[in-house]
């Protein structure tokens, strides 16, 4: 659990922020310079749905923008999608306006992937990028949103591993796409898994970072 935060409000005082969360046996980090080194922003699978006390209509009579429609999802139509955690906030002791949707709970600031409003899956441009790169069986491509969202920590469903997509072979120019690596149990058939293992050897040389190694260990354990 997160450590106890100081009492704070939005009326002139500070709001406690955190860079690490231990939740259900998983440690999530959101740090711009972890141990004075590189940035470490973990990804999670976020569940999009209304809170139980709302019926999907109470806060917006007719949502018109993609952001509004995504923010008011009926519980029976809930879905999961990846998001990058930017920081954690402790709002347990904050004071809110009467018409605020915020609650006295732990929140996280995220950058989510963009989802198709009908299918809840990747946008068409991400699917085209996926096809252009060979439609890898172990991955799913997503388009990242440009803005930030505030979501309850309780909306975290699972940890997910996501890689940045690059437009150049030297991996210096980032694109707007990210690559979600599926869990091992979702990898095609046993025969295809053998081929995938060989491909992963190549990826290890391409991504010689601590994060990729943790990805591979996670998928093999699951």
Q: Could you please describe the fold and organization of this structure?
A:
With 222 residues, the chain is an alpha+beta fold. It folds into 2 domains: 17-182, no CATH class; 183-222, no CATH class. The chain is 20% helix and 32% strand. The protein has 4 helices and 11 strands, in the order E-E-E-E-E-H-E-E-H-E-E-E-E-H-H. The protein has a 6-stranded antiparallel β-barrel with strand order 5-6-7-8-11-10. A 3-stranded antiparallel beta sheet has the order 2-3-4, with no helix packed on it.
Major β-sheet profile: 6 strands, antiparallel, barrel
Helix amount: 10-25%
The total of helices stands at: 4
* % residues in beta strands: 25-35%
Tell me the strand order in the biggest sheet: 5-6-7-8-11-10
Radius of gyration: 19 Å
Low-confidence stretches: 1-12
Structural class computed from helices and strand pairing: alpha+beta
Order of helices and strands, N to C?
EEEEEHEEHEEEEHH
Strand element count? 11
Question: Kindly, what is the distance between the CA atoms of the first and last residues, rounded to a whole number of angstroms?
Answer: 23 Å
Mean pLDDT: 77
Task: Name the overall outline.
Answer: globular
Total domain units: 2
Short description:
The chain is of the alpha+beta class and 222 residues long. The chain is built from four helices and eleven strands, in the order βββββαββαββββαα. β10 and β11 form a beta hairpin.
